[in-house]
Amino acid sequence: MNIIGDTMARYEAIKEIMDNIEDELVVCNIGYTSRELYEINDRSKNFYMLGSMGLASSIGLGLAIAKPHEKVVVIDGDGSLLMNMSSLVTIFANNPSNLTWILINNGAYGSDDKQNTYSKSVDFVNIAKSIGFKNIHYYDEIDLKEIINSDDASFIVYNTDAGNSDVAQIDLDPITIKERFIKSI
Amino acid sequence: MDSSEAIYYGFKDTEIDFIVSAPCDNFSKLIEMIDEDDEIIHVPVTHEEEGIGICAGAYLGGKKPAILMGNSGFGNSINALKSLMELYEIPLIIVISHRDSEEHTIHDESLMEESTPRILEAMGFKFFKPGNGEAAYTDIRLSRDLCEEEGKPVSIILDEHYW
Questions:
Q1: Size of interface A-B (CB pairs under 8 A)
Q2: pTM to 2 decimals?
């Protein structure tokens, strides 16, 4: 695997996350995050969000409320969360216990040639705590499987470095992504 | 059937079971009815774009969603309506209301009201503009079929005289 930029840190992060995934529905952030997930572990239960930057957590929330007996995992990015910060409030208020929201925080608009985000000066764990989330963690301190199965919506921050791996575009059209996802539930 | 009941029964008779609401004071009676209905999940949101994302997720999970918003807020939802709903062909009913303007001295709502139909046309999205409850009830039923058929959002625009 070639590296674009300094590291392939997010690729490794997604790989680690997916090692813990069994039957969960995964909603994945736009751009390289989805492309890397597609390369690492393409499955019908992955929803690759191809547009609408910022909305992965909102899609995950709607899905988690609609399907309370399914586990939903959202793989998000810091630049995207910054575009939809109030999703933290909406998800906390609705508190779907089947939703696990993982923020890969690399301080960069990763798909955008390493344009920096404001995340370096922000502690997302403290923000989530101040909103009221009970189930907040740094990824390196937890067993992900345990958190996925815990009560209360959870918010997990995976701090890592910026950089994209040299992965191809997703060669599925949006309708196929949608239809096979719905069928898999 | 008053103006709020017309929309409520339109939703009920088209099996809408998931409603997202963004702030607009004209919806208060409708929202009370929705909250009393155990067959409908209601999720209030902080802004319209987020609401579109939640509707998309609910649809993936088997629900039939609709979203309520004011016409100023409609502007906040535009990208998501294209790059999420149209891209994945997710049907959605959008009810766009003009806010009560009697006490408004700043006409921000009127500016968006004038632009909303033109924006929808430019986006290639169909809409209805019912003048009373009876028409709104019928138009919601037509919207439901149309959005399923086209895989695109269909809007119901309610002006200040509707309520």
A1: 115
A2: 0.96
Highest mean pLDDT pick, A8-17, A79-88, B154-163: A79-88
> In Å, how far from its chain's centre is CA A59?
11
Instruction: Say yes or no for a CB contact (<8 Å) between B88 and A86.
Output: no
Q: How far is CA A155 from CA A68, A73, A120, A127, B54, in A?
A: 17, 10, 18, 11, 18
Of B43, B55, B60, the CB nearest to A182: B60
Cβ separation A59–B62 shorter than 8 A: no
Name the residue with tokens 């149309």.
B146
pLDDT of residue A6 exceeding 70: no
d(CA A88, CA A165): 29
Give how far the C-alpha of residue A131 lies from the chain's centroid of Cα atoms, to the nearest Å: 19
Write down all domains in chain A, each with its CATH number in brackets.
3-173 (3.40.50.970)
**Domains of chain B and CATH, by start:** 3-158 (3.40.50.970)
Strand order in the sheet with B92-97: B41-44, B18-21, B65-70, B92-97, B153-158, B127-128
Read off the pLDDT of residues B14-44 as tens digits, 9 standing for 90 and up. Answer: 999 999 999 888 999 999 999 999 999 999 9
pLDDT one-digit tens code per residue, A115-131: 899 998 899 999 999 99
Q: Which member of B46, B61, B80 has the closest CB to residue A86?
A: B46
At residue A128, what is the residue type? A
Distance CA B9, CA B50 (A): 26
Tokens of A26: 């995964």
Chain-centre distance for alpha carbon A113: 20
SS3 content of chain A, % helix, strand, coil (to 5): 45, 20, 35
User: Which residue type does A102 have?
Assistant: I
The structure tokens listed for A155 are 């918010």
Task: Compute the average pLDDT of residues B120-137.
Answer: 97
Bridge partners (DSSP) of residue A102 are A75, A156
